[in-house]
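Dig into what follows:

_____
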Amino acid sequence: MKIIKPWGYEVILEHNPKYMVKKLFMRRGCRCSLQYHDQKCETIYVVSGILLVYIEHDTKSNFTSLRPGSYITINPGKIHRMMAVEDCIYIEASTPEINDVKRLGDDYNRMDNN
């Protein structure tokens, strides 16, 4: 199922009681919500383009630039955001909590957590 987002789109490749896998496309210069998850743990794997990942830590903020073949895991409770430096395709493999999104900021005024 393809879901259009203001920054690109996502395709749910698998969603079952144990895990979820999505393919995402993000346009250059766009970014997703500043968010966190109460339960969801996700691993991001970049297929093409350059993705900048922001993760807020207890003592500092951390930006990681991911290129094709690079990946990062984001644990529950970590405030994070992805931004495409170039048009980017990436895979998100995660636990199955599809609606576990707590938005703290959004460029597209989607603060209803959906």
User: Anything to note?
Assistant: The radius of gyration is 13 Å. The CA atoms of residues 55 and 61 lie 6 Å apart. The chain has one domain: 2-105. The chain is about 0% helix and 55% strand.
